[in-house]
Specification:
The complex is a heterodimer of chains A (213) and B (226). Chain A has helices at residues 10-16, 27-45, 52-65, 69-78, 87-106, and strands at 124-131, 138-142, 152-153, 155-156, 161-168, 171-179, 183-185, 192-195, 201-207. Chain A is elongated, with a radius of gyration of 37 Å. In chain A, helix 1 (10-16) packs parallel to helix 2 (27-45). Chain A is α+β, with helices and mostly antiparallel strands and 213 residues long. Chain B is mainly α. Chain B has helices at 2-26, 29-44, 49-61, 66-86, 98-109, 114-123, 131-142, 147-159, 164-167, 170-179, 184-194, and one strand spanning 224-225. The chains are: A alpha+beta (213), B mainly alpha (226). The interface between A and B is large, with 53 and 61 residues. Strand 1 of chain A pairs antiparallel with strand 1 of chain B, so a sheet runs across the interface.
């Protein structure tokens, strides 16, 4: 509950709230306002009233004793530790470590499709093009993205032509386009197509330059 | 110590873990269980597991029933085994490259007679990579060019040092000639000339007329590696 303020002191309240300038205060309230200001300044400068020379001396010692985080980490790492684990905790830790390693080694098995790593010495950036003026979306999938069902999206040029650049390893790759998320179709521009073993056809692209393993 | 033991253990079985993790995630449990013996047999036979895994993932992506996926992978494993034998490899001896085996299996499926694949391997030095030539051989046979003639031409081109990057362009050039009515073998001849590749010596046998069926695929420009 708010204490009622006498009407003659209302300007002081507004001044303290920042709604009124000092000059607009009545003279009888200015001395009171000055007293408030002195209290506020004192609190802001040093709430504990510590003499400045003492504070400076302490801070100088503290700064001099500061150790860098790297040094602290190195010291921690060099200090012998005794690790106590129950058999159950140890087994759980081992299982967790195994799981992390297995997931890390299995690569991108979930989530959005990822293009193969950027073109390096062994990869050739390959441009795929599809003319599909009626399509709302076009994607490409194939062995180079583990046949991800979402595929890698092609960008529309705005004139019905869709393109994407994919870095491919040398070798023979099979792929298809996915139009509007549902229609799987081989590349009409591909010179080679093969039976996919499921009653449809895959397009084939050959990236020369493989070296014998 | 623990990390070392873990890495050693995973190093020994890492291939198995890597191969099956994605399959387990993308296939339903029944299909996955049915595929495991196929994959295990393929591993024992030292077949290219990546190709088998890719076929299973392809079936899953295309939402094919599990029974079809298992059938397709099993068929591919049989093709790969036959292809590897044609290329002169065995599980015990030196193996042909996985890419060559996969390409040979694909050539078999496209109608290339086994003896032509074996002959191409015999006629080329062991170090010669055959994946691209075998894919091109399959494409030419599919276009009605007699397998023996296509293989003879490819042998010559490999011996002449024509790079794989140029062999890849041959089928699209053949398509151009076929579309204007050339018979298959002259179409191959025309394709080589168009690419500036020396035509092999010897008389080109025209071969049988092209069977009606699937027309040569679309426009001449393939997706290009640049």
């Amino acid at each position: 509950m708010k204490n009622p303020m006498p009407p003659e002191r209302e300007p002081l309240s507004r001044y303290l709230d920042g709604e009124l300038d000092y000059a607009a205060l009545p003279d009888d309230l200015k001395s009171e306002a000055d007293r408030f200001e002195r209290i506020v300044r004192a609190l802001r400068d040093d709430p504990y009233g510590t003499p400045r020379n003492v504070r400076d001396a302490v801070m100088t010692r503290v700064r001099a004793a500061t150790v860098s985080p790297w040094r602290r980490a190195w010291q921690w790492a060099r200090t012998p530790k005794t690790l106590r684990l129950s058999p159950l905790t140890g087994a759980l830790a081992l299982a967790a470590a195994l799981a992390i390693l297995v997931v890390a080694r299995s690569g991108n098995v979930a989530g959005s499709p990822e293009l193969p790593e950027p073109a390096g010495a062994q990869r050739a950036t390959t441009r795929f093009v599809l003319v599909a003026p009626q399509a709302g979306t076009v994607a490409i999938t194939g062995d180079f993205v583990n046949w991800d069902p979402q595929g890698v999206p092609l960008r529309s040029r705005g004139d019905g032509v869709w393109t994407v650049d994919v870095p491919l390893e040398p070798g023979v790759h099979h792929y298809v386009f996915i139009v509007d998320g549902t229609k799987w179709q081989p590349d009409p521009n591909a010179a080679m197509q093969v039976d996919d073993g499921f009653g449809q056809r895959n397009s084939v692209i050959v990236v020369p330059g493989a070296t014998r393993s | 110590m623990l990390a070392l033991a873990l890495s050693l253990a995973l190093g020994a079985s890492g291939l198995a873990l890597q191969d099956t993790a994605t399959l387990r995630q993308r296939l339903d449990p029944g299909t996955y269980a049915a595929l495991l013996p196929v994959m295990e047999a393929a591993r024992r036979d030292a077949l290219p597991l990546r190709a088998l895994e890719a076929k299973a993932l392809e079936g899953a992506a295309k939402r094919r029933p599990g029974v079809e996926i298992v059938a397709a992978v099993t068929q591919l494993a049989a093709d790969l085994k036959a292809a590897r034998e044609l290329l002169g490899g065995s599980a015990a001896g030196p193996r042909p490259a996985d890419g060559d085996v996969v390409a040979a299996a694909e050539a078999l499926r496209r109608g290339v007679p086994p003896q032509e694949i074996a002959e191409l391997r015999r006629a080329t030095p062991p170090a010669t990579q055959l994946d691209v030539p075998l894919v091109v051989l399959g494409a030419l046979v599919e276009r009605g060019i007699p397998a023996a003639e296509a293989r003879r031409v490819l042998e010559h081109l490999l011996a002449a040092g024509v790079p794989a990057g140029r062999l890849v362009d041959i089928p699209a050039r053949v398509d151009i000639a076929l579309r204007v009515g050339a018979p298959p073998v002259p179409a191959l001849h025309s394709a080589l000339q168009g690419l500036g590749i020396p035509v092999p010596p010897g008389k080109l046998r025209p071969g049988p007329p092209r069977k009606p069926g699937r027309p040569p695929p679309g426009p001449p420009e393939p997706a290009m590696a640049r």
